[in-house]
Amino acid sequence: MSGAVTLKHIAERLNLSISTIGRALADDPQISLATRERVKAVAGELGYVAHSGARAMRSGRSTLIGLIIPDIQNEFYGTLAKALAEICANAGFQLVLGITEDDPESEERQVRGLLEARASGLVITASPRPTRETLSLLSRSTCVQLIRRTGQLEVPWFGIDEEAAIHSGTAHLIELGHRRIGYLGASTTLSTGRSRLAGFERAFTEAGLEVPREFVRLGRPRAAFAAEAFESLWTDGERPTAIVAAGARLTVGLLQAATRLGVAIPADLSVVGYGDAPWWNPNLTTISLPVRDIALACGEFLLRRIRETEPSSARSAAGQSVTFASALTPGASTRRV
Amino acid sequence: MSGAVTLKHIAERLNLSISTIGRALADDPQISLATRERVKAVAGELGYVAHSGARAMRSGRSTLIGLIIPDIQNEFYGTLAKALAEICANAGFQLVLGITEDDPESEERQVRGLLEARASGLVITASPRPTRETLSLLSRSTCVQLIRRTGQLEVPWFGIDEEAAIHSGTAHLIELGHRRIGYLGASTTLSTGRSRLAGFERAFTEAGLEVPREFVRLGRPRAAFAAEAFESLWTDGERPTAIVAAGARLTVGLLQAATRLGVAIPADLSVVGYGDAPWWNPNLTTISLPVRDIALACGEFLLRRIRETEPSSARSAAGQSVTFASALTPGASTRRV
DNA sequence: CTTTAACACGCAAACGTTTGCGTCACAAGT
DNA sequence: ACTTGTGACGCAAACGTTTGCGTGTTAAAG
Question: Which PANTHER family match (chains A, B) (predicted)?
Fold first, then answer.
């Protein structure tokens, strides 16, 4: 608080110099063992707590790592955050959380804040259209993209083969005999939205069918959008016999709306979800994503880059990217027609 | 990065002093408007980013606020974190996330880390048995307890009237005619565990019934425990006709296990959940908690305390606490017997 | 023409660490 | 007795800001 204990206080207490105290606490063999122990004893007694800010300023490197994501309420981002927090803690870093709600200005503020804090690294799931300034700031930091991939940002990326993921789910429905298949997806301003829709379309063209565009609904990747979109899909005109939810929050929204409308799954409607939803009853047929593995890989990569960047100056590792595969987990929410 | 732009660089570029640059960027009227604009222009051109660490060291206050919670994967803590992150962002603070997994040593490391970072404030949902050192560190910080309440920690608390919450859910089941009611709860080493169990028991004693202790299962507040406990409850001996899940993660675990075992809800078993689970099918009868409101109130209180603490030295606001009420949300997961 | 005052800016210290180098005392080697 | 060595510690600078105070210039007031 106001009057925290510093090296100086310990030094005065022991009639030693500040540097000796500093070295003693760092277990520098240059200081005699006896002194080291006396120092540590007094430090404990006084309740000394090192000032990582001062240390960071002197040494040039902070122990902060930033995580910038659009949301944190749902399990998908929760799992990402948890995995990264674990990795950070193990490596002696602290995770600073920035929620953007996909708002470019909020995103810019968060990024700026993290750069001001001199975060050693940044993990970001960028908003659809990041500010020029955001991009400029990010390009000057040690940064990794997670899940979404922004073209204008030349930094490594860790994510999912979204196209293959949705393709597998859609193909599964086609194989079960469905033709009027609905699609709830993020708008194509998002890299994930583009890839997923492409996967959906490829499943049809590969089967020699036409893409049922009248059943495709694109919007914000929120539960609210999915609920609303599904409702319109269900009440206006011809109904689909199956739906692909191309996003974790969209899956939630779809299921909520279906429950609310009394739509029986899979009797009235077959559903393929995105991301695991172990809570759904009955078990959901879903596209399983190795969320935790992605986050771990991303975190470890970032830490490696931070350690590399430390001695020499920044090296451009722009092109790198790692793609993870999904798996279709069969459940009871789809049926043959 | 390696060579960040500092006030000094701008000063040299403009043949001005460092202090003038600093004041100009802070819009100090002491500096002429013309100079201020020239400085800002050059700052933008050079890509100057203030060093909040240095600022914090000089001014004594950082822009960091710590959030220490056992988990972040589930929606309950996700909602807390999101609300807090919003409040922090709006007030110009940054949220540092620490996940403890209810491990006292991890918790101590996180708390120490935040004190080292000179976080302006701390929000903590403490583990069952915090370390002595943890308590000592916390007592020296501006800190608020969230949800759980640790007796040894004399700091303000924001949480739920847990006893009343579980009481309402249990009484609801009793009123529906249930007698063999199971209880899945956190162990009573947690303040929440104690209060919730007390609410469960009071519902029976108030109705002149005996507490069905053979159906009570206490353990770690994780989905895994609830699943396991329910399975044993369901397969060993006489079955309960209803269950109260006294925790968000326990609710998830119970529902998963029930789905897995093919237990029909509410035909075979009535269920009262804890915390909203809008995704469950059919709608869950649940104890709704004003999670977001709690977090917002907690965050605003903390910010106020931070601002108060700033000028004078720390004031003890030890005894304060705010209790929020829950509401029983009727759903389709309970039936009369 | 001098005194004052307003204005615009510079100096330097301080925040708490870390670290290269210097210093001092004492013991061992010639 | 004189060098050499070494173990144990102190000095001071640096990291990037902020800020109280001092200083020089210019214009208005006497």
Answer: HTH-TYPE TRANSCRIPTIONAL REGULATOR GALS, LACI-RELATED TRANSCRIPTIONAL REPRESSOR
**A residues 193-232 closer than 8 Å to B (CB):** none
CB B30 within 8 A of CB B23: yes
Which nucleotide is nearest to A14 if distance is taken from CA to C1'? D9
Alpha-carbon separation of residue A65 from A86, A115, A143 (angstroms): 12, 10, 10
DSSP for B227-280, please give it: HHHHHHHHHSSSPPSEEEEESHHHHHHHHHHHHHHT--TTTT-EEEEES--TTS
What pLDDT does B259 receive? Answer: 87
pLDDT at B283: 84
pLDDT of residue A239: 97
pLDDT in tens, B269-298: 999 999 988 777 778 999 999 999 999 999
Q: Tell me the pLDDT tens digit for each residue of A72-101.
A: 998 899 999 999 999 999 999 999 999 999
Of the pLDDT bands very low, low, confident and very high (cuts 50, 70, 90), residue B318 is low
**Rounded Cα distance, B103 and A314, in Å:** 37
Among left, alpha and beta (phi > 0; psi -120 to 50; other), residue A299 is alpha
Q: Check if A261 contacts B (Cβ < 8 Å).
A: no
Please indicate whether, in this complex, the C-beta atoms of A117 and B96 are within 8 angstroms of each other: no
Distance A48 CA to C17 C1' (A): 13
Do B82 and A73 make contact, defined as CB atoms within 8 angstroms?
yes
Q: Hey, which residues does B216 pair with through a beta bridge?
A: B183
Q: With a threshold of 0.90, does the pTM exceed it?
A: yes
Instruction: Quote the tokens at residue B28.
Output: 């100090």
Return the residue of B nearest to A261 by Cα: B282
Beta-strand runs (E) in A100-222: 121-124, 143-146, 157-160, 181-186, 216-219
* Of A308 and B83, more confident: B83
Q: Kindly list the structural domains of chain B, giving each domain's residue range(s) and its CATH number in brackets, ordered by start.
A: 7-50 (no CATH), 61-160+292-324 (3.40.50.2300), 162-289 (3.40.50.2300)
The DSSP element (H or E) to which B65 belongs, if any, is: strand B64-69
